[in-house]
Write a structure and sequence with these properties.
This protein has 527 residues and is mostly helical. Helix content is 49%, strand content 10%. It has 17 helices and 19 strands. The chain has helices at 5-37, 68-92, 118-129, 133-145, 157-175, 178-191, 212-219, 230-234, 237-247, 251-265, 296-308, 314-331, 364-371, 378-397, 431-443, 446-462, 488-501; strands at 41-42, 45-46, 97-99, 104-106, 154-156, 205-207, 228-229, 276-277, 288-289, 332-335, 338-341, 344-345, 357-358, 407-410, 416-418, 464-465, 468-469, 513-515, 521-523. The protein has a three-stranded antiparallel β-sheet with strand order 13-14-15, with helices on one face. Strands 1-2 form a two-stranded antiparallel ribbon. The chain has a two-stranded antiparallel sheet with strand order 3-4. Helix 3 (118-129) packs antiparallel against helix 4. The longest helix is centred in the first third of the chain and has 33 residues, at 5-37.
């Protein structure tokens, strides 16, 4: 039967229209099903997995006119990063750290001989910020194909969070690459059994070889983990809040909020936080009060949580300034013009405290200055931050190498000296240049760039070896003896802060990003 030509055209158009409708419906059903199966959806609601778009890293030369000398300095720091990375890559790829003198993997560090790629993950955001694309892609490939945290063994919850969760989240925040987010979730999920305590305060260590049930049973014996440090329980908030933000899974933020609420309600002598707590009773388990090791980053995370929240986390802000004022009243000392927070004991309030200061405590100058804007006296706290920073700078300036010791104390004239029975080593720590970074960004006083350059030159002269950079055993001996360890935080923090000091302020602006205590960057949440 012959069909008239106009009818054929009509039939073809109808067939095309029908197929088009069927195709659109099929695509819709396929997308709907895939959305329902997506683990990044909660209760059928789509979660936004992309970070809020920040200016990625800015232009190192940027709008500010940077003198050629500063550009040369910045490029020198970048070259130092490449040297550190290449030494690790050549002699310890996949291991946590390298021994740059003996040119072999370092197996006596925080994570032992396990091949967790600690330096790789700690370096991710530094490589990206510096524009080291090839090196970053090498690191990303290793993370995607080789990194696993599922069956490692006993780990420090604190160190795992700040280095691995923080490092992976920093890379995700910069790139939006879901590989980094999924790996961060893997690591964080392995830490969750540490929170199985009656108080919600996490145990200091967790064994990732055991499942949740076994870790829960372990937690029933108080002797299995008698105490946990203030820093360990108080330095999870930035990472876990951001992880909940990008995955839509509230479990992470709920865990750290429970810690925060407990610490706020805890009875505190004279408003001070002691160094250790019991995760079982929830009470303080020591009398020591300090801003140094085992305490430091708790205070840092309080004020940075206020910033990270887009200035909405009033609990964090109030807890920070209450603690700062309590420490001013009980711990702040000025000896011969040297300003510092002394370590004291809460059962001896009013005692002038100890004159020893840890390198770890030198973060406090930058943190106090950063918080000044939201205090009741911005000028006073900015000045206090500057004075605290100047004290730590003195500990560098008075040594034979120009590098600061692990601990120092004050003599009668107020000078910072390495204690004879203490720790004269320099292990590539970042806290002093971290404070220089904040003081530079907040004041633009040229001395902070000069002080930072002095540190860079000293590291280059006394710590550089063929296989990277090594710590030294005594900062007062110019004929140095190496400790033969290139700490992963040297790449994560020390070199990053130095690079940013000599870059334009638009490179990781501090009104859009916060740094965790390992120097990893997380965006301020504005939604």
């Amino acid at each position: 039967m012959l069909i008239p030509r106009p009818a054929i055209r009509i039939r073809r158009k109808f067939r095309f229209f029908a197929y088009s409708i069927m195709g659109v419906l099929g695509l819709f059903i396929l997308c709907y099903k895939s959305e329902q199966l997506n683990p990044l959806h909660v209760n059928g609601e789509r979660r936004n997995t992309q970070p809020q778009r920040q200016p990625m890293v800015g232009n190192p030369d940027g709008e500010e006119v940077i003198a050629d000398a500063q550009i040369e300095r910045r490029d020198k720091i970048k070259e130092m990063m490449v040297h550190a990375w290449e030494g690790y890559k050549k002699y310890a790829w996949g291991a946590n750290e390298v021994q740059p003198v003996s040119k072999q993997p370092h197996v006596a560090g925080v994570f032992g001989a396990a091949r967790l790629g600690g330096t790789i993950i700690d370096s991710l955001d530094t490589l990206y910020i510096m524009g080291l694309t090839d090196e970053f892609n090498q690191a990303r490939e290793w993370v995607a194909t080789m990194f696993s945290f599922k069956t490692y063994g006993s780990v420090s919850v604190f160190e795992t969070n700040i280095r691995f969760v923080g490092g992976l989240l920093g890379a995700y925040a910069l790139t939006g690459d879901s590989v980094f987010m999924s790996k961060a979730v893997e690591v964080a999920d392995n830490l969750l059994p540490a929170f199985y305590t009656s108080t919600g305060l996490p145990r200091s260590r967790i064994d990732t070889r055991f499942g949740s049930m076994i870790n829960y049973l372990i937690s029933l014996w108080p002797d299995s983990d008698y105490s946990v440090s203030l820093a360990a329980v108080g330095s999870l908030h930035l990472e876990f809040v951001y992880l909940s933000e990008i995955t839509g899974n509230p479990i992470y933020s709920k865990k750290v909020q429970k810690i925060r609420d407990h610490l706020e309600e805890l009875r505190k002598p004279s408003g001070l936080y002691n160094t250790y707590l019991s995760p079982y009773s929830g009470d303080f388990a020591s009398q020591e009060v300090s801003i140094g090791s085992h305490c430091d980053s708790f205070y840092e995370y309080l004020i940075k949580s206020w910033l990270q929240s887009g200035y909405r986390d009033l609990q964090a802000k109030n807890m920070y300034f209450d603690a700062l004022k309590a420490m001013e009243n009980a711990m702040l000392q000025d000896r011969g013009g040297m300003t510092y927070f002394a370590k004291i004991y809460s059962d001896r309030i009013g005692h002038k405290g100890y004159t020893q200061v840890e390198h770890l405590a030198c973060f406090i100058g930058g943190t106090v200055a950063l918080s000044a804007r939201w205090s009741d006296n911005a000028e006073r706290y900015l000045r206090l931050g500057a004075n605290l920073t100047a004290t730590c700078r003195k500990s560098y300036a008075l040594t034979s190498t120009g590098l600061g010791p692990e601990t120092f104390r004050f003599t009668g004239g107020g000078e910072a000296r390495t204690i004879l029975i203490g720790k004269p080593e320099y292990i590539l720590r970042p806290e002093v240049v971290e404070s220089y970074f904040y003081m530079w960004r907040l004041t633009h006083q040229p001395k902070y760039r000069e002080w930072a350059w002095d540190v860079a030159l000293a590291i280059e002269r006394y710590c550089r070896v063929e296989g990277g950079f090594s710590g030294i055993k005594d900062v007062n001996v110019a004929n140095v003896v190496y400790d033969d360890v290139q700490q992963s935080f040297f790449l994560a923090e020390t070199l990053k802060y130095l690079y940013l000091i000599f870059s334009n302020d638009s490179v990781i602006p501090i009104n859009k990003w916060v740094f965790n205590t390992e120097g990893h960057i997380l965006p301020i949440i504005t939604s």
